[in-house]
Write a structure and sequence with these properties.
31% helix; Barwin-like endoglucanases; 480 residues; alpha/beta
């Protein structure tokens, strides 16, 4: 048995408890560490690590894997605390569309002393920034993904650019390097030249000197990736310098998992193994296997010193005991349950794209059971308002008998302002005007996007006609 979960329970009520019980389900049945079951894997570059107990002084929120949840962002900014968040750097993200409670997120963003956005599009967030730094697109720069979950062989894919960047745009490594140089945070150029020369001639000596520099000047550790880009990265004639930050990761991994690296077909011992791994990653433009494990090695990847998985988490077990169905009763003022963010044929994420890309469901309709349409006094294909205690949206209606009575669904990925004509047009529901920051998991603050209490209000003929006309006009402008 393999358990595979997604946002349905991870963004529903009792989110963290759901995730815990999901793990118990396959662990207590012994469906772990064997063929056909759930297994641990290795990372070339870890995406997250264990929490260390840090908490926000403003909200008390605990960091999880070194991160704070976006749901806490407005409270961290809209405060008179002298240590509140005052500046934000937004890298390839649009929190004004993806964060819960858009109104509060926008208020927080406007209250900041400094907002810098690095992106390929003028998003809602970028429109409120003090500075927008235009990045190169994914087709114009070196990129890789860290979501390597394969077993028994893990793969890593470094993708080379297909085109030169557009005029006036830069890949992120170059942007960060230029900023750090302008701020005077990089070592003097003479030191960088010396390291660059060593990187081109004697990689082992370069590693020794590089690590000695980081050890003697601890403030440089935070910008080590940029320093690798500026030294080792500048030695590659093929332009693959942005991959240089992976060099230390490859050596660390080869030192920690040498047998797994060799099992993936990479030869070498010690330093040579790390070098071989890095060069295979850097030059293997179709992807490379970087580690291979056997099933009897899975338990060796457990991080606890006793090599066991510690099943009992008292806080979560207490939560389980405290569950009371009566506390889950629907609020009579908001009798419907909204799935806020449903995947459909032509949406899967918040990527900024032309609305013409969608071949159907252009308006991002509200899916609702036919009997519920009749109950609220609406008509299939018509319009109604979805209201929560946070906000209100006018949406098109589409009958869907696959839904349970009392459950409705809106898609995510809509509602972004798209340039058209002389202005910008918004197509489809910007669903986070409906969601609330405080309607979230008590531990991880994960929003209850898949369980939002709403009421449905039919529109009168005048407003329904106006909604249809506005939608048609927006689609026409975008198509033109």
């Amino acid at each position: 048995m393999t358990v595979r979960v997604e946002l349905g329970i991870q963004q529903g009520r009792h989110s963290t408890l759901n995730s815990y019980l999901e793990k118990l389900l396959f662990l207590l049945t012994g469906s772990f560490g064997r063929k056909g079951t759930n297994n641990l894997h290795t990372w070339l570059q870890p995406l997250w690590g264990n929490s260390r107990g840090e908490r926000s002084a403003e909200t008390g929120q605990e960091q999880i894997a070194g991160l704070y949840p976006p749901n806490r962002f407005p409270a961290e900014v809209l405060s008179d605390n002298p240590d509140r968040i005052r500046a934000v750097w937004v890298d390839s993200s649009n929190p004004l569309n993806t964060m819960a409670n858009t109104k509060a997120a926008e208020e927080a963003l406007r209250a900041l002393d400094l907002v810098v956005v690095l992106d390929v599009a003028l998003t809602e967030t970028a429109a409120l920034a003090h500075y927008v730094l235009p990045a190169a697109s994914q087709y114009e720069k070196w990129e890789y993904t860290l979501f390597n979950f394969e077993f028994p062989t893990n793969y890593f894919h470094l993708r080379a650019p297909l085109f030169d960047p557009l005029h006036g745009t830069l890949p992120e490594p170059e942007i960060y390097t230029r900023l750090l140089r302008a701020m005077g945070d990089l070592p003097p150029e003479a030191e960088l030249v010396e390291l660059r020369t060593l990187a081109a001639s004697n990689r082992a000596e370069f590693m020794w000197r590089f690590m000695a520099l980081l050890d003697s000047r601890r403030e440089l550790a935070a910008i080590a990736p940029v320093m690798l880009y500026e030294t080792l990265g500048r030695t590659y004639a093929d332009g693959s310098g942005p991959a240089a930050p992976l060099w230390l990761a490859a050596h660390r991994f080869a030192a920690e998992q040498p047998d797994a690296v060799r099992a993936a077909g990479i030869a070498g011992e010690g330093f040579a193994l790390g070098e071989a791994l890095f060069e295979k990653v850097r030059t293997g433009h179709s992807g490379v296997g970087f580690s291979t494990h056997t099933y009897d090695q899975v338990w060796s990847l457990v991080k606890h010193k006793d090599g066991k998985i510690h099943l009992a988490i008292p806080r979560l077990l207490d939560w389980l005991k405290s569950l009371d169905p009566m506390q889950e009763a629907t609020d009579p003022a908001y009798p419907f349950t909204l799935i806020a963010g449903q995947r459909r044929s032509y949406n899967a994420n918040q990527i900024f794209r032309t609305p013409a890309w969608r071949k159907n469901d252009r308006d991002g309709a509200l899916h609702i059971h036919p009997d519920d349409i009749a109950t609220v006094g609406a008509v299939d294909g018509g319009w109604l308002a979805v209201e929560t205690r946070t906000g209100r949206l006018v949406v098109r209606i589409e009958a869907d008998d696959s839904l349970r009575r009392g459950v409705v669904a809106l898609p995510h990925g809509y509602g972004q302002a798209y340039p058209g004509g002389e202005g910008r047009v918004v197509i489809g529901p910007r669903i986070n005007f409906l969601t609330a920051s405080d309607d979230c998991d008590p531990i991880a603050a994960t929003p209850h996007h898949k369980n939002v209490r709403v009421r449905l209000v039919p529109l009168d003929p005048v407003n329904a006609t106006a909604a249809a006309a506005n939608a048609a006009r927006a689609l026409a402008v975008a198509a033109a």
